[in-house]
Amino acid sequence: MSAQAVAARAGSGSSRWLALAILCAGQLMVILDGTIVNVALPSIQESLGFSPSNLGWVVNAYLIPFGGLLLLSGRFGDLFGRKRVFTTGLIVFTLASLLCGLAQNSAMLLGARFVQGVGGAVTSSVTLAMVVTMFTEPKERAKAIGVYSFVQSAGGTLGLLLGGVLTQAISWHWIFFVNVPIGAVAVFMAQRSLRAEEGTGKGKSTDAFGAVLITAALMLAVYTIVEASDYGFGSTRTLGFGLGALVLLATFVTRQAKAQDPLLPPRMFKFRNVSGALGTHTLMISGMFSFQFLAVLYMQNVLGFDEVQTGFGVVPVSLLIGLMSLFLAPRLIARIGPRSVLLVALVLIAGGLGLLGQISADGAYLTDVFPATVPLGIGFGLAMPSLAGLAMSGATPQDSGLASGMFNTMQQVGSSLGLAILSTLAASHAGTLLGDGTARSEALTGGYQLAFRVGSCFVLGALVVAAIVLRNPPRPGNAPAARPGASRAADSDTASA
What is the largest CA-CA distance in the chain? Predict the structure, then answer.
């Protein structure tokens, strides 16, 4: 190989890693914003006059469009070009963040949060697809997915720390203002460094009606889930909205089976690893969210931590996730395969949540919380790269944006579902104990214990799905030779992660 060729190849490699850094910077902003608001809610309520019943909409106004638009945005990335979709989402998210920081009343903040959720969905939907299409060599891809997974999994806990620091040191406005310079730089660098590619939508219809159906179905489903904690899962309101979401979804699926250019090709669900990874991901995130939400409440309401102390309390999980996903997970995945790594990881996560199920009302951080952060951090840091690789292993290059959107959609649905179910269980059980005369701290702790144990059961369910459905993709060089006439679905389902 000539010196010029070597130099060109090295430059190409370095530009890909720079592009990965830009993608992860945009993704980190979006993930941080999902949790950075949580610790600032009391300050926002006092400043803008939110009622207790309406305060939750500061979070929900972001979650509903975010969860509803991920799938559609991912498909648009395939059809019209992922760089175009990514940069558009970044611009919308950054401008909406500025409006959130400038908000002087509750209506302005909620409107800006909704637009911010739209921008976040558009940005996030294609990020994983761009990562796997840039890195095709298995070892490099494993490393790149490890970096992406670290941002995905640790960003939420980092948001809790950053939100507490900014709110206490300056004001809640800065949890939004901080996105503006980062977003501006990311947009500038994305335009210069990301490779533009032609989408596959030229000459095709965009199935506008199908787009409306799936977006409405997902938004209504997320809305139903997040509101279920207030109205109850058995209420007429929850059941009615849930049925409406199912009807919209069924109509969308029926249309996709007949459409000439479907928005969600039915072939995607024939890929064993894609379907299995999505189901596993949903259950795992539902259970893991009991730590991200309820452990924070336990530290604040029972142990008496302030916002900054709570943020530092979750730092061990973030550090371990980083170490695992950046360094150990890629090596283990290359050696024993993503399925094997995932099974071990799910056992660790279930065990960590089981430990949290033993917390006590007169406990301490070092004895009740910290021991659980070790298996949770290690397990989650190993699980996310494995799941991301498996979810993308069955997607063709033309469908990778859709697979990426599906993966992120299931994460959002899992988070919302976990929050609604586990917080409702914790509050209901605590209320029962209070009614029986139990002291407040003991009643709250009893509610958290139950929720952590149920969260552990969710993760065990994910373990069962992963063990039964998922398979390690064949390693390079070990894949069977392609046979004439082999189906595209079979080839895609055995493609290397």
Answer: 81
